[in-house]
Structure formats: structure tokens, C-alpha cells
Design brief:
The complex is a heterodimer of chains A (279) and B (351). Chain A has 279 residues and is mostly helical. Chain A has 11 helices and no strands. Chain B has 351 residues and is of the alpha/beta class. In chain B, the strands form 3 sheets. Chain B has a 6-stranded mixed β-sheet, sandwiched between helices. A 4-stranded antiparallel β-sheet of chain B has the order 11-12-10-13, with helices on one face. In chain B, helix 5 (138-148) packs across helix 6. Classes of the chains: A mainly alpha (279), B alpha/beta (351).
Chain lengths: 279, 351
């Protein structure tokens, strides 16, 4: 019969399930592809911001601090730029975490639905979460490198300890980011939630976590707040390794706290993505 | 041997063509049917989707209430129903992005609860809501999607080029997705769903919101895919689309399956061959359904007209005329899937 045209053999699908870490890397690749379109815009801010901060505080304010007396005693006699630079490195990581983990995450769920598109592929929600977090970590590292170069140009680098500073700052940013991403994947009313987050979490944290002055200069009752923040631990680590003033026990404490926070945050994040993308 | 031949029978739904419609299958499928009643594990005729008592609950809301489905390799299977009938919930379970609440489900012989990623690697999904990556170019959308499915960079690039031609988007390859028209975006999503050469394609309302030209273009692509042996499962609430594309379909209503069969078989079972539409000058001159009952099988009253269901519409019209019924306008047409659909799911608005 003429209508019984022979069908071609049914297709054999070409898709396959990648190992977990490779799946997360493919998610990173998506963000990299996206980043290449708009990197010029972020390149300007990632050079301009450290330059402005370092000039205003490191050089400008530093000229007051460096005159001596009680002010310089607070930094342990270290020139203010050298004292401040590793702290700014940690602060910058936390700021990148805050920006990359709020609206972009919300948008990927709610407006652009790119997570939903990914979740239709063999990639699992948990791998999407970890891939996105890894991307944010890479952004912190690359911006951090720019930071370090500018610090070096201004004469604020003491030695190779700054490389360790960069790693500590990134760990601190990642721990924070995992929690903020979880938050961004939970909230429904972004206007209220995000403005509250920026006002009551991010800004106080960047001001009172020991970036600009040791928290011992704060009233005793404020200090416990700083102890809870990842930024204080990140700042202590980053500054400690840059200036070579870190002692073993506090170092392990700070490191342990940040790693525990990251483990907790990543666990919550994976669970949250799983629940939201598989309903 | 014309490639259009098997489908040409589908556009007419007179009694004579019933035998041709619905299950036009290549010899391979026939063997599978005769030997093991579609349950063959072999390539052709294999059951790609098998659901029994499949249910989905969202808190107190029961979106899907125990449906049975069998989708067979090579066919285009339709899932029809009004808004809120549970089509999309069912599709999401089949796409392995939504765990079932009860019942059993096998897709490509695997259980989504256990082998979700392995199943997703071999199927394609066209979602109802557009989720293209708007910050990427058309080509990048296809390439990166190929990477999600584990394709090498070279293979993803090559596949993207093939799909750009298939979707007639080659000249827009480097445009941002945002600049595409609705029809182009839809074609791009269909192209994207094919990046892994899926064995089963799930399309959730693929042509909703498109203009007639764009719909026809998309139908052509889907027909082409069928010719290449890609099994398709389509949800739609356009009856012409279902009639045109589907070999077999189910009508869902309020979470359950209300009817099942080929479009022609459904028309035969739930409607008459013809429908006689009568309009009257005024409500006064309009006869009541009881007055007309003897002439036809069934009468339906609409605000502006009467629908009379009869196997021979012309004969019924003649008989009515002789009996003194004088409509202002009359139309005899063949029953369509829309008549079946409205009969099964009701004319009142369900939301």
C-alpha cells in the first residue's frame, strides 16, 4: 500500500548524563557565555571600585591614621593602606556575593526561567545550584585579582601572603553567597526582602566587621554581632595572612567557621533548588 | 511515493476515510501490533510512556486524578482538555521535573523517580512558558543547551548549525533572542528541544499565541519530525491542531481522562457525521429542541443558533423544510473534534 511509507529508524538520542562536577561546570559555562557579552560593563566597575575605595580610605584617610598616636596603634603600627587592603578584598568578595546572589538568582527563577530550562536537561537542581555558586566564586576571584593588582600599584602589598588573602576572601564570599542565594530562592516579594537585606544586613556588615578598624574599638555589646558575620572571620583571615600576624588557633577557628557556614549554605541551597525546580 | 500520503487522509473525516486515519503506521509497527499488541520491547512499536493511575496533588488540589496513558514509539499523541484539566501537570511528570503523588509511571522503560536525569537525557521538552536565555544569541542558546545534554563543544556547534537551518533561523543566528518575533522564538524553542536528538518530544501548547502563518510553519516542522520517527506528545486546546497532528489522543477534564482514541474514532463515537447549524430571524420563530427531536439524533441550543446532530445533514435539513421549519440561514458541515471536545467537557467556562 502506498500510504505505508517506510519510516526512518527511530532516532537514538545523543544526550547523556554527565558526572556531577561536569554538570556543574556546564552551568558555569552558561554563565561564562553570558558574561562575555557584557564583561566590559563589569570590567569598568571592577577596576573603578577598588581604585576609589583604596584612594579614599587607604590613601586619603590613611594619611590621617599614619600620622601616629592612638590611631596607628590600632593597626599595630602597620601603614593604613596595608592594613586596609586585605580587608577590602574580603569586603569586595562579600559585595559581589550580595549582588550576584540576589536579583540574578530571583530573575533566573521568576522572570527568565533559565533554571527551569536547565532542569529539563539531565542536569539536576542541585548541580544547577552548585554551578551557579561556583560561577559567583570565580567572579570573586577574578575581581580579586584586579583588586590585588591595584593595591600593588599603590604600594599596599607586603608579600605573597596576598594570594592567600585572596583565597580567604573568596571562601568568605562563597559562604555568604550560599546563604544569600538560598534566601533569594525562597522569597516571593523581592522589593521588600531585598531592600531589607541590603539595608539591614549588607551595609551594617560591611561597616562593622573590622574592615576599616579593629572591632575591639567597638562597644563590647556590638562585638558579638561581628563575630557572627562571615565577613569578620574572612577579614581576620585575609588580613592575618597578608600581614603575617595570624596565630594558628584563631586561624583554624575562622577557617572552620567559614567552611561550616559554606557547608550549611550549600546544603540548604541544593535542597531549596531541588524543591523549587521539582514540584 | 509521496511523503504526504499518510496524512492526506486525515483532513477529511467522512465515514469512508475512517479506516485510513489514526493508525497509519509503517510495516514495522504493524508487526509489533500483531505479535505483541504494542507491548513489544523492540525499537518499533515499543511503549515509550506507560502511566497507570498517575496522580498529582498540590496540597488540597488534585490536579491529576489517576490517569492511564500509553504512548507508542512513532506516534503523535495528543493530550487535550480545557484550562485547568491537568494537562500541564501531567506533562511535567512525564518530563521528569515533577514527582508523581501516586500511581506508576515509566518513560522509555525507566522510572522518573529513580532515573530522572537518564530519561531527561533522551527526551526533548517544549515548555508552555518561554524560557529561552534572552541574554544569549540564538546560536548560543542552542549550543549551550547541547552542552547541558553532554554534547562536546564541536558536536554542540555542529548540531546548532543543523537546527538553525531546520528552524529557518540561520540568518538570525547571531541576533539576541529578544529581537525575535513570537513565531521565531517558538521555532527556536522547538529547535532547542531537539538538540539531543530526542526519542520522545513533549510539547506543551506549542502554538499558543501564534498567528496563523507561524502556526502553519510550526506544524510543518512537527510533521517533518514525525517523518523522522520522533514520537511526540502534544497538549493543546486547539482542536484543529489536534485533528491535524495527532494519531491518537485523550481528552482530559478535571484531572481524569474523559475519552480516548483517534480523532476520527472520537468523532464517530461522540458525534454524528454531520452537524446542521440553523439560525432563525427571532427567538419566536425558533423551534424548541423537543419539536426537533424526531428529526435528528441530538439538538443543542446556543444563544445565536441551534446545532442539530445527524448522520446525514442534508437529508435532515430537507425533512425539516418539508415540516415547515424556516430558518433564516442553514449550514451543513462535518463534525469536528471541537464538537466532541465541547460535548465532553461542556460549553460553560471552566477555570
Amino acid at each position: 500500500m502506498a500510504e505505508l511509507t517506510t519510516y526512518p529508524t527511530p532516532p537514538r538520542a545523543a544526550g547523556r548524563v554527565l558526572p556531577g562536577w561536569l554538570s556543574a561546570l556546564v552551568v558555569v559555562e552558561r554563565f561564562w557565555t553570558w558574561y562575555r557579552h557584557g564583561w566590559r560593563a563589569t570590567a569598568v566597575t571592577s577596576v573603578l571600585q577598588p581604585l576609589l575605595f583604596l584612594l579614599a580610605f587607604g590613601v586619603g584617610l590613611g594619611s590621617l591614621v599614619n600620622t601616629g598616636g592612638r590611631a596607628i596603634a590600632a593597626t599595630g603600627g602597620v601603614p593604613y593602606l596595608m592594613y586596609l587592603a586585605p580587608g577590602l578584598l574580603a569586603m569586595s568578595a562579600v559585595q559581589i556575593a550580595a549582588f550576584e546572589s540576589t536579583y540574578p538568582v530571583l530573575s533566573a527563577f521568576k522572570w527568565q526561567r533559565i533554571y527551569q530550562a536547565m532542569a529539563a536537561s539531565p542536569i539536576t537542581p542541585g548541580q544547577i545550584a552548585i554551578g551557579n555558586l561556583t560561577w559567583i566564586g570565580l567572579r570573586m576571584l577574578s575581581s580579586g585579582v584586579v583588586y590585588v593588582l591595584i593595591i600593588a600599584l599603590l604600594g599596599g602589598v607586603r608579600g605573597f601572603g596576598v594570594v592567600l588573602s585572596l583565597l580567604c576572601a573568596t571562601l568568605c564570599g562563597l559562604a555568604f553567597s550560599s546563604l544569600v542565594m538560598t534566601f533569594a530562592s525562597v522569597i516571593r516579594n523581592e522589593e521588600v526582602a531585598f531592600s531589607a537585606f541590603f539595608r539591614f544586613v549588607l551595609i551594617p556588615m560591611t561597616l562593622f566587621s573590622g574592615t576599616f578598624f579593629p572591632i575591639t574599638r567597638l562597644p563590647a555589646w556590638v562585638r558579638p554581632v561581628a563575630w557572627v558575620t562571615p565577613l569578620w572571620h574572612g577579614t581576620e583571615l585575609s588580613r592575618g595572612v597578608a600581614l603575617g600576624t595570624l596565630r594558628l588557633l584563631p586561624a583554624l577557628g575562622h577557617l572552620g567557621y567559614l567552611l561550616a557556614l559554606l557547608a550549611l549554605g550549600a546544603g540548604l541551597l541544593k535542597r531549596r533548588f531541588q524543591r523549587r525546580l521539582s514540584t | 511515493m509521496s511523503a504526504l500520503r499518510p496524512v492526506s487522509g486525515k483532513y477529511g473525516y467522512g465515514h469512508t476515510s475512517h479506516s485510513l486515519v489514526g493508525f497509519v503506521r509503517p510495516p514495522g509497527y504493524r508487526r509489533a501490533v500483531s505479535e505483541d499488541g504494542f507491548n513489544s520491547g523492540s525499537e518499533n512499536g515499543a511503549v515509550l510512556v506507560k502511566a497507570r493511575g498517575l496522580s498529582k496533588r498540590f496540597g488540597p488540589l488534585e490536579a491529576v486524578r489517576g490517569i492511564d496513558l500509553d504512548v507508542i514509539r512513532g506516534e503523535v499523541f495528543g493530550l487535550l482538555g480545557p484550562n485547568g484539566a491537568g494537562k500541564s501537570s501531567a506533562m511535567r511528570m512525564l518530563a521528569c521535573v515533577s514527582p508523581r503523588s501516586a500511581g506508576s509511571l515509566h518513560v522509555l522503560g525507566m522510572d522518573p523517580d529513580v532515573d530522572g536525569p537518564a530519561i531527561r537525557a533522551r527526551i526533548g521538552v517544549v515548555p508552555q512558558l518561554d524560557n529561552l536565555d534572552v541574554d544569549l544569541s540564538v546560536r548560543e542558546n542552542l549550543q549551550i543547551y547541547g552542552r547541558y545534554f553532554g554534547l562536546s563543544r564541536a558536536r554542540a556547534r555542529q548540531r546548532a548549525a543543523e537546527l538553525l537551518r531546520f528552524a529557518q533561523l540561520a540568518d538570525r543566528a547571531d541576533s539576541q533572542v529578544e529581537s525575535l518575533s513570537g513565531g521565531m522564538r517558538r521555532r527556536l524553542i522547538v529547535a532547542r528541544s531537539l538538540v539531543n536528538d530526542p526519542e520522545l518530544l513533549l510539547l506543551d501548547e506549542p502554538t499558543t499565541g501564534l498567528d496563523p502563518q507561524a502556526r502553519h510553519q510550526l506544524w510543518d516542522r512537527l510533521y517533518q519530525l514525525k517523518q523522522h520517527g520522533v514520537t511526540q506528545l502534544i497538549t493543546t486546546h486547539y482542536m484543529d491542531e489536534a485533528e491535524r497532528l495527532c494519531d491518537r489522543l485523550v481528552v482530559m477534564d478535571a484531572g481524569v481522562i474523559a475519552a480516548e482514541g483517534s480523532p476520527a474514532a472520537l468523532i464517530k463515537r461522540y458525534s454524528t457525521r454531520d452537524v446542521l447549524e440553523l439560525r432563525f430571524a427571532s427567538q419566536v420563530s425558533r423551534p424548541t429542541p423537543t419539536e426537533l427531536a424526531g428529526f435528528v439524533e441530538r439538538v443543542e441550543e446556543l444563544p445565536d443558533r441551534l446545532l442539530l446532530y445527524a448522520d446525514d445533514g442534508e437529508a435532515a435539513l430537507g425533512a425539516l423544510h418539508r415540516a415547515g421549519v424556516r430558518p433564516r440561514a442553514s449550514l451543513v458541515r462535518r463534525s469536528s473534534l471541537e464538537d466532541v471536545f465541547l460535548r465532553l467537557t461542556g460549553r460553560s467556562l471552566v477555570e
